[in-house]
Batch of 2 targets.
Target 1
Amino acid sequence: MIDVKLYDKETPTWCPGCGDYGVLTALKRAAANLELDPSRTVVVTGIGCSSKINSYFYSYGIHTLHGRAAAVAEGIKLANPDLEVIVAGGDGDAYAIGTEHFVHLARRNLDIAYIVMDNQIYGLTKGQVSPTSEEGFVTITTPYGSPEKPVNGPLLAFSAGATYIARGFSGDIVQLSKLIEDGIRHKGFALIDVLSPCVTWNKINTYDWYKAHSYQLKDHDPSNKAKAFQILSDEDHLALGLIYKKEEKIYEEKLPRKFVANPFQNIEVDKSIENIYEEFL
Amino acid sequence: MIDVKLYDKETPTWCPGCGDYGVLTALKRAAANLELDPSRTVVVTGIGCSSKINSYFYSYGIHTLHGRAAAVAEGIKLANPDLEVIVAGGDGDAYAIGTEHFVHLARRNLDIAYIVMDNQIYGLTKGQVSPTSEEGFVTITTPYGSPEKPVNGPLLAFSAGATYIARGFSGDIVQLSKLIEDGIRHKGFALIDVLSPCVTWNKINTYDWYKAHSYQLKDHDPSNKAKAFQILSDEDHLALGLIYKKEEKIYEEKLPRKFVANPFQNIEVDKSIENIYEEFL
Amino acid sequence: MKRNDLAVRIGGQAGDGSLATGELLSKFFRRNGFFVATDKDFPSRIRGGHTSYAIRGAQKEIFSIGDNIDVLLAFDEDSISLHLDEIESGGLLIYDNSRKDMDIERKDIRMYKMPLANIAKDKIGLELIKNTMALGVLAYLFNFNESLMRETIHDSYKNKSEKIIEENIKAFEVGLEHAKNFQKMENYKIENLGVREDTLLLMGNEAIGLGAMAAGCKFIAAYPITPASDVLEFLSKHLPERGGIAIQAESEIAAINMAIGAGYAGMRSMAVTSGPGFDLKTEALGLASMIEQPVVVLDAMRSGPSTGMATKTEQSDLFHAIYGGHGEKPRIVIAPGNVEEAFYFSFHAFNLAEKYQVPVIILSDELISWNKQVVKKFKLDGLKIERGKIMLKIESQDREFKRYEFTEDGISPRPIPGVKNGIHLETGDEHDEYGHITEKIPNRNKMMEKRMKRMDFMKKDLFPSIVQGEGNIAIVGLGSTQGPIMEAIEQLNERNVNVKYIRIRTLSPFLDDVKDHLKNVDLAFFVEQNYTGQLENLVRLYTGFDKTYAIRKYDGRSFKPKMISSKILEVLGK
Amino acid sequence: MKRNDLAVRIGGQAGDGSLATGELLSKFFRRNGFFVATDKDFPSRIRGGHTSYAIRGAQKEIFSIGDNIDVLLAFDEDSISLHLDEIESGGLLIYDNSRKDMDIERKDIRMYKMPLANIAKDKIGLELIKNTMALGVLAYLFNFNESLMRETIHDSYKNKSEKIIEENIKAFEVGLEHAKNFQKMENYKIENLGVREDTLLLMGNEAIGLGAMAAGCKFIAAYPITPASDVLEFLSKHLPERGGIAIQAESEIAAINMAIGAGYAGMRSMAVTSGPGFDLKTEALGLASMIEQPVVVLDAMRSGPSTGMATKTEQSDLFHAIYGGHGEKPRIVIAPGNVEEAFYFSFHAFNLAEKYQVPVIILSDELISWNKQVVKKFKLDGLKIERGKIMLKIESQDREFKRYEFTEDGISPRPIPGVKNGIHLETGDEHDEYGHITEKIPNRNKMMEKRMKRMDFMKKDLFPSIVQGEGNIAIVGLGSTQGPIMEAIEQLNERNVNVKYIRIRTLSPFLDDVKDHLKNVDLAFFVEQNYTGQLENLVRLYTGFDKTYAIRKYDGRSFKPKMISSKILEVLGK
Ligand SMILES: Cc1ncc(C[n+]2csc(CCOP(=O)(O)OP(=O)(O)O)c2C)c(N)n1
Ligand SMILES: Cc1ncc(C[n+]2csc(CCOP(=O)(O)OP(=O)(O)O)c2C)c(N)n1
Ligand code: SF4
Ligand code: SF4
Ligand SMILES: [Mg+2]
Ligand SMILES: [Mg+2]
């Protein structure tokens, strides 16, 4: 096993106590267990507190736009399937402005792991309501309580066709690192949704709250689709662990693509276009 | 009952045989049954063959941008909840570029009916693959067959929290108009997903194909969530009829909004802002 | 002796509480009868990183912090390394040496070190309350009116618990007490001028929110983004009680489309955002122009490109605001120069949008949006709602209404859904007078002309440049540079250099007055917070004027008056 | 006697088959040794609405349909009402009177009525095959080489079934036969010049696709949109066999972000779109500039604003392409003027993008993207792949790589993920040389300068204007107006008016040559397909040149040469 220190980079500027520290630690452990080569790993993020995680994790990284990490990641993975591509970001990033890409990445089943750090709030922009905030939740943009039913991210991924769905908790790094590790290992799209408290702006969904509202999945067969649906639908009791898993062909393998070694490395003028000329005669 | 002719407008320019004719007829019948006042009804569409439906239906109409009809409709409905707001458009409009708004409209549960004319193809742009095209489907942009699992629109709506989900077929106008009628009547977000063949670009998913691959729901209790999930998940046998229905408070009623008669009609300079000045002293 | 003019900078780490303290001090200054200008500088993260907040209070009307500060209240070392030089000779440095002590070199200022955090912890049990304690120190040293300070502290925390109020008052007293160990700042005189009841202390975003509400805006849709979120936050609180709706949309695209929908339904509506979100609204803005629907959009400019420096200012979205988006479409772009104007521009934006049936873009910048100023209470009596050709009732009974009727001024009657006899289709496709989709040539030509000719008609209704001073040397600017430019002009005047200051306020359509104002100008200094000189380019494009000298800044921080005046003196060889 | 130059317009209702027939005729012309220019005009719907396709074949090199047509093949009444006047005196009208007969007034042309559809139904049992039958008629009347026609028909349908080929050949024979009832067009002489093996017949979109493939582009992501979809469609077919990927994304936003991702991973990538989709790419284009990633984007301009007229042309996205998006960022914008150039510009776009690490926007217009031309086979030997500072291997073993190292030319070494010792973070936030997020002032200033200064360095590598002719009267244009302008110039020359034609090909950065070319020009006619004169404004902005006369067209249809020449003659008083 590799020393987790290999993955250290800048010191995080998250608030002391932020759930994202736990996620970072878990990610490093998962990487170490998987012996990920930092130079063959890309962590793709959007914008948000959580999306800064690739400033703190030693590997290739690209910190893109709010909501667009999934799409950028797909481009990277398709261009070079040999890379380990991991997406990470917040609940706003994935389930609000990023909904579209999130859903379509899931249905494509590319071999990408997506870690959502769900704190049910907008951290970086200072405490606005999030798509996962509960109905009635009071924030600066919902001073009279949010009138919206929350998005159930894992369920959304499930209905879009995701083939690995797990929920972890920043407060349980051991389990979380295992879920991340398995998610990365999973061949296909893997969602690791993490209950990751924002200690600064969300005074409701705290570590204790999550402890009280979550439970450990036991004796659950993750290949049971109907059961997975039931577990995912229960929003009052948040299941922790691997909820759903299915082996399915990944997008990269379904592409009608002739194998060419390193198609991006040694480029020459492609004179074979002349073979196409007959279409134009 | 009102004469359906009331709702006639321009003559459609759809191809002869296009499924959308059936939807238009069904919509007119539903409107007539509901005695919809054309001057209090707004049909909001995106861009696509199907989105031209409000050129052919007599009421207020707004033909917006590809994928954005849902968001525009939400603005209209919130501004004036007395209006009957109906969204209509294609599978690309709703489930590709419009995914984000579609999901969030569903979770908000505004009192809006959304008719998706699903032809599993991009009609207006001449036959490219659609998010609902089946895996392996050959089009001009997927000459070697589509490598993507289709989006299951109704299931997506379901997991986002839609409170009325029905599937109709252009070939069965009687049932379809009933589903649309009930969807409009339903208090909350109603999805009416319609199998609506494109006779020009999609030579696979024809009227006959849909007949062969669909079945009538019988003795189904639409309030049974687990059953609804099962029905919606079965993509090989497309259920026709009302699949899911739930009574739930609508967004408009949950808004913290003081009642003001016609807040958009007789506007005066709002001097009551002076009451807020104390925040600035 | 400096009288009734004091600039204080509070510096620390993000999360250190500089912000709240600055707000409190600003409030005090207003109540003390002063005008106020402020300048925030903090990083785009929640904790850590150097933050600073400068507050200036003065008897005379001010728009800027000025070149130097009188007091630096330093809670971290960065405050020293970044701002020590800024202290006016004879000024004061208070350094909290609780965490660390350091040698500080400046002979010409007063320097008081005190372990504020430690004392706070000791005496109150709350380290963060060091801020309020520091205010006690200031109050003693500068002879602030103590009871007014107590009252201000009380009011500032009145929405919190009694306990918090008490703790803060106590911290203030501890500060006062502790300060007695030091010598008062006798070279300053801060008098209590008595509160001016006709003023308010607020930031541009709040002024924009108030302006919108005054105009009867009842709908805001926005996605949070720095530095525009405040408008959404402010209206989320206040619209519901007015029968209105504030909705945090799932994205900026959703927000603008919702706002267009609400506007179509007849409700005055707006969307607020900044750069990245403004980019995402590009397509929908084109739709609004095409279907001739009013909508008001705020772009509070921040430092780009891309995510850039989210909490820093810039004036670099001009060309995008004016031309952004494919095709050619009418739109209005206006740029307020200060908080007061932000209110009025916001109000008028809604009239303009409905009268001309176009999107109106309010282009503020982070300094206007965020910095607080003391302004005169807004004159609501002079304001009037103008809704243009909206039709709330229609007599004639044609089956379809000519929503896009060709008219003299290019603007057509606009029935809203719900109105009998007003039925029509609106479409972003090219259409005829009824809104039927058509690609016929003569109709297309007439429709393009119809849409575009309003750009001429509206000019009379828009905001001409504000010109101040005269001569053949000019300064041209827009937006928040007004503050430093005005002070720079005072500095120039002191050196007997007279300049004509042209502050451009309307960017689209470009008004003809600018050319007139530049007629006898031999050299114009374009003061801009951007890299490429967008305002200069715009003026060149529309006036051909090219005798320009660029004074640009693109580091995200505000101009100091001296940066401007000294450059001008240098160029003029004075 | 008109020799070896024939312009045919085929008009009917959408779905009538004019398109396929036009394609076939174009193919025939090429094989006949002719150059070809075409012009499509069809509505943005699938069925119904008037469609027309004009094809001109000629011995000399042509870029435009010209002012008039020689033959109108009319399958509906709109064809007559819209295009009857267009027929050259001495030309021919063939009117299919199967559906309806009508009186047609023109004495100076030959007019043959025949119930083509009815005959087709009768003889072949397929109404739509009337088109191929009409080609038989033409072949007889103009003495086309019949066996070459048969061969062309055969090849055109060779991907369909044998049956279809047979039916079409049969229809052709029926046409030939039927035509014998009519008199041949003896005032025309169409000779078989023998196919020129060195030419291709293709449209701009195909040329762009070929150019991309030649450049080693292995990734295209796009969302279908008129008139750009063809590039996606073309590459969907041909990239996989080259190890590449063509992906129809869920939206234009997804597409550009995927393309940026692929580019970041080291694969040459592109996204293609038109107006509405281009708007949606605004934010991501800013990201590419900020993280200094290459990406090639095609904007095939169509008629705006908003959805506008999707199948009509326009040149109205110039300002958006150049300046669109918040903040200030380097980018390249180039505009090819014809199909041949579209190939080379597309090829070079990929080099430019990698060399300068910026997005490159290819600005075509619908006429270039869609209309077929006969071009010389591309010279691949002269082409070279230039990847700039990409790093596929790194020796030094620093733990973090200085991805944004400050360098002379502002461009830094660019390792791609997978490369050992190249580890770094790219971010759209302001960053230091390592890609660490920072808002420090000196770094910010240097980074802005680093990013922007390449805009000067790259100028030498970009496409200067093409200048033809001389004198103090100029015509300035860009893109597809080349065709009509070249013919207009011929017309002017015939009237002894000499003009200097300046075709601008690079819009961003604006090149210095334009100013030189305009130096001695007293009057420049700006020929543009837009309303506001975007090219004229751009030139004015960068050169100050203002002795302009605008010839603009914004009805979505192409210029006729005479529209240009006669306006110029009128203005010049000739
Ligand atoms: C297009 C765009 N819109 C808005 C923003 C502002 N913004 C930055 S982060 C963020 C949301 C943060 O919430 P989340 O994604 O949940 O991440 P967290 O900070 O909670 O980890 C927003 C709205 C942006 N950067 N870009
Ligand atoms: C932003 C944008 N992108 C692309 C298009 C082009 N476009 C028009 S309709 C359409 C898709 C049509 O498919 P669908 O929504 O399924 O409707 P259908 O025509 O099949 O009824 C596309 C891609 C557009 N108008 N705007
Ligand atoms: S604001 Fe919240 S999410 Fe952001 S770093 Fe602090 S605790 Fe974490
Ligand atoms: S192309 Fe298809 S969807 Fe469009 S009108 Fe024709 S049949 Fe209907
Ligand atoms: Mg969050
Ligand atoms: Mg479709």
Note: Chain D touches chain C through 63 residues (CB under 8 Å).
Target 2
Amino acid sequence: MGIDLSVQIGSLQLKNPIMTASGTFGYGEEFSPFVDCADLGAIVVKGISVTPRPGNPPPRIVETEAGMLNAIGLQNGGIERFIDSKIPMLRELDATVIVNILGDSVEDYAELARRLEPLPEVAGIEVNISCPNVKKGGVAFGTVPEMAARVTRAVKDHSSKTVIVKLSPNVTDITVIARAVAEAGADAVSLINTLIGMAIDVDSRRPKLANVIGGLSGPAIKPVALRMVYQVAQAVNIPVIGIGGITSLNDVLEFLIAGACAVQIGTANFINPAVSSELVLGLEQYLTTHQCSLADLIGSVRV
Amino acid sequence: MGIDLSVQIGSLQLKNPIMTASGTFGYGEEFSPFVDCADLGAIVVKGISVTPRPGNPPPRIVETEAGMLNAIGLQNGGIERFIDSKIPMLRELDATVIVNILGDSVEDYAELARRLEPLPEVAGIEVNISCPNVKKGGVAFGTVPEMAARVTRAVKDHSSKTVIVKLSPNVTDITVIARAVAEAGADAVSLINTLIGMAIDVDSRRPKLANVIGGLSGPAIKPVALRMVYQVAQAVNIPVIGIGGITSLNDVLEFLIAGACAVQIGTANFINPAVSSELVLGLEQYLTTHQCSLADLIGSVRV
Amino acid sequence: MVVVQCVEQGVVQRNSQVNQDSLAMVILSPRIAAMARPGQFVMVACSKTGQSPLLRRPLSIHAVDGDCLTLLYRVVGQGTELLANMNVNNSLSILGPLGMGFAIAERKHHCLVGGGIGIAPLLFLARAIRRAQPDSQITLLAGARSDLELLVIEKFQPGVEVLIATDDGSEGHHGFVTELLAEITGDVEVYTCGPTPMMKGVAAIARKHSWGCQVSLESHMACGMGACLGCAVERSGVHEGADKYVHVCKDGPVFKAGEIWA
Amino acid sequence: MVVVQCVEQGVVQRNSQVNQDSLAMVILSPRIAAMARPGQFVMVACSKTGQSPLLRRPLSIHAVDGDCLTLLYRVVGQGTELLANMNVNNSLSILGPLGMGFAIAERKHHCLVGGGIGIAPLLFLARAIRRAQPDSQITLLAGARSDLELLVIEKFQPGVEVLIATDDGSEGHHGFVTELLAEITGDVEVYTCGPTPMMKGVAAIARKHSWGCQVSLESHMACGMGACLGCAVERSGVHEGADKYVHVCKDGPVFKAGEIWA
Ligand SMILES: Cc1cc2nc3c(=O)[nH]c(=O)nc-3n(C[C@H](O)[C@H](O)[C@H](O)COP(=O)(O)OP(=O)(O)OC[C@H]3O[C@@H](n4cnc5c(N)ncnc54)[C@H](O)[C@@H]3O)c2cc1C
Ligand SMILES: Cc1cc2nc3c(=O)[nH]c(=O)nc-3n(C[C@H](O)[C@H](O)[C@H](O)COP(=O)(O)OP(=O)(O)OC[C@H]3O[C@@H](n4cnc5c(N)ncnc54)[C@H](O)[C@@H]3O)c2cc1C
Ligand SMILES: Cc1cc2nc3c(=O)[nH]c(=O)nc-3n(C[C@H](O)[C@H](O)[C@H](O)COP(=O)(O)O)c2cc1C
Ligand SMILES: Cc1cc2nc3c(=O)[nH]c(=O)nc-3n(C[C@H](O)[C@H](O)[C@H](O)COP(=O)(O)O)c2cc1C
Ligand code: FES
Ligand code: FES
């Protein structure tokens, strides 16, 4: 019998702690030549909104040292098209599917949760609170604890699925937000979303992204992500999912040791499309070689 | 006649906009085999406190992707020793010297400003507000606008020198802090200090830094720094000094175009100890070749 | 159409200068070579995975010879510089083949218009047209700033008529490559790759003559396989919501000109 | 003492394996070679500046021959791996010479104790002692896990008595290198470099005999020249404020044992 890699996130049991990060793995099918999605802990699909969004004008991405900036602008076909055209395909993939949702208002989030509720193909919801609240003058839901809590409650009220709230790192104290959403009923938190960054083309003196600013991801942000995961793991009693620059088995282990009970792979999928399933194998081998259980590892950092 | 590289920061005129960042250039003398400090816009010396500080136990530094974490712990010999043993040496260097100061209380900052006031060798003060306020339970001065403003006022009240307030990036909205210190009388702001990060040694399961967390610097943070400089340059009417991952002439230009009127070189000094004076030459050549003045460049980003 | 890709460890067979700033790299990469179609591209890791630069670089497939791919690339930055420094027997990770290639139209005359390094995907295309339609006419219009920049055009011959335009008149027509299209008539399909202004000009002429016109676009890419949505390019006409943009890596890089420019 | 440093573009003359995981690199680096003293080190850029890994790597000066430096290094991670892949005529940026080296004591007997790769700075030292004090006795005690790990000891001969200890007894004494010190008596100065537990053991024995003892320490470094304060090591005894730590790059890497361990 192999080693037990399963982890519990709310009412959801994942085969293993390796997930893919929203917006970096499409809807899973794009990666089918490289990864059997059924082998992963879960896939988190690209963020879905109530109505379709065109996304930002190009250029949308630019490379930086050990990272990249993106300003995709949350392009997606809306919940309707997602249900009609993506759900049948996701059923075939046989993966544990978590749907990342985003909105301009608390009502948007509630509506999305309600629409996803009847779908057996959807195992959980990841609530992206990095978006600006249109009604509150564009301040991001993720930066004000009360607003983050309200979104969380709205989603929980309309969903019996596992609800993960995805935290923004662009805050003074991420533990305050984490505690607020935990108290509001979140089953887990995932972190971090991208850091806000910018790049300028010196010749044209224009921002390299049409949107001026964008989200920084990749190995460059790993130290910040790991610190926040460590802090949040101390601050809340719900599972923490680590995200940010994870590329290698060593990175996965660092996040688990810091207190994450699962991790998401983002930008690394672009460099090695098979990385997520390689990391499942790598983790299994590591635990076998070191005769160590996943529970032994998680949160085992000695300070 | 060469091109005019001078910039005005408060009452201080710098020869050129290239400075070195506090904590990365010692007290200047360490770099004397590589750089004539008199050629630089200014050197910012390692942070000084009222009483000597031993600093943190080792390990204090760890490398990360395109960056490094440090937890030096503000080691310094205190203001007394600085005046006795470093000022005479700094006089010899013939450099424009800015002294970085740090404290546990508003009174500490005021005291440091008062002690530096009579020294002609000190051209300006850079106020590091990333330190925790011991009296207010350790919340960093740099994260609460009112506290940042109080520190600024205290220093300005005791100093006729140019006062630069150095902002922490570990906040939700850096423009709020920038505006607060500008209103409190700061002559300029410099940003960014390091992002807070962490690294774990997987074998020992211990943090790689004895202090557990540390400050992330280097090319990895450049996109975040540039974004914040751009935002702050829009938000305040005082000069902005850009810091964060600057390594090449292209980086210098990006920060100037984003709205910085000067820059500080930090981690890059470790990789190429002559980089700061090379950048002065590089900038001069660029402006000559492009028949462009410094004023044309600064804040010229077109969005 | 089922698009099949893989990641393959390619082995450099040759990496030689074709002019001052461009090289041709021949890579043993049998799986990708077997699947590739003209107009498709690969994403090349220019450094060992995990090292700088982080992202793979998109490069068109210039030719396929047996188990080998040829890439024709201009050195413009860190990634292509690392490629230029590779030696025979070095290996590099290649992801591909990617995207939708050119559709070989049923036409009497195929007119390939390349500007600068935009000639890269056209050789593979010319060979495929020759094979698929041995009796059709193929013309290459190659544009460059000067004769020093004229890349690999001899590889197109025989079987392809080659017309040249240079900005400085140092070879062929003195002027824009688009001006060479004045000489073309009949039942024509145009396939073009090069700077955007050139391709727009080509597309405008093609529309006037009611020729078919396929354009090969570039865009900054992260994944190369439709997952990141980074490579968006606006479609012509008014489109709502998620249909406002097409994605160069997956919907392209080759598009019908009318889909992009009204 | 005036310490003078420079950054020099060194050119690799030789880079050859000395055992499974260690190499010796000979680098033409005339300015640094001219200034170097035993026990000093250099900071080597393992990649082109600005590329991964970011920081330079500290390596002891193993030998100086004319205009050349030799570095003896063990491959342990990204930086040293890049060094191992360098070829003759490659160039690399070297910052040095750095730090305070060994002080050659006025003694009848100089005892050099190296553990594993810690032998690196001792060859340069042995040669300097031989030159400065041709009549003194020099003994090298070299420790390793097994005979496969015994590095370059033949380079010390003639003129240096060599005693060996291996953990597995595959060569010399079966046991710790510290145990070889039992055979040493007289007016001795000990110079040691290797794993910390070994050096602590050596220092304890030296103190017992009232020998002089100099230890060469390691610490993670960013600048290598006293500017970043990253390489701090705690001093023995109670010291207040900024004097609690010494800095390996500037105050060391060689320290009197008593300054570090009480
Ligand atoms: C589908 C496609 C096919 C291509 N085929 C070829 C070809 O056959 N030969 C050739 O020489 N070039 C081709 N290009 C352009 C080539 O991808 C860029 O020149 C290359 O990525 C530059 O990388 P660099 O690191 O040298 O330059 P840098 O400027 O350092 O690159 C920085 C970043 O910008 C991106 N980038 C820079 N220029 C371009 C560009 N023109 N298009 C897309 N991304 C860019 C890079 O991929 C990288 O992420 C193609 C581009 C696309 C999208
Ligand atoms: C003064 C001094 C002299 C040295 N002389 C030699 C020598 O002659 N031969 C030799 O093989 N090694 C020597 N070392 C150790 C050598 O610096 C490290 O093995 C090397 O830096 C590892 O780099 P890496 O990228 O291969 O390993 P990685 O583990 O990838 O390095 C990661 C980071 O940790 C640092 N690091 C890792 N190990 C050490 C270490 N032991 N000491 C200091 N920093 C470390 C690296 O510099 C780098 O910043 C010396 C160290 C010091 C401080
Ligand atoms: C191209 C791109 C698109 C992304 N889209 C989303 C999204 O739709 N919703 C979301 O919550 N996060 C999104 N993210 C953030 C990632 O899920 C992840 O939090 C972030 O990239 C950090 O992880 P990494 O460093 O491993 O990439 C996106 C990231 C990238 C690079
Ligand atoms: C080793 C080290 C020590 C530092 N010490 C100080 C300090 O004493 N005071 C301060 O305000 N900033 C200090 N900093 C922060 C730098 O001045 C600078 O803000 C930061 O490193 C970002 O710039 P960089 O990416 O160019 O290094 C230190 C940074 C490093 C790397
Ligand atoms: S490059 Fe990722 S979708 Fe096209
Ligand atoms: S390495 Fe910077 S002070 Fe020693």
Note: Chain B is about 30% helix and 20% strand.
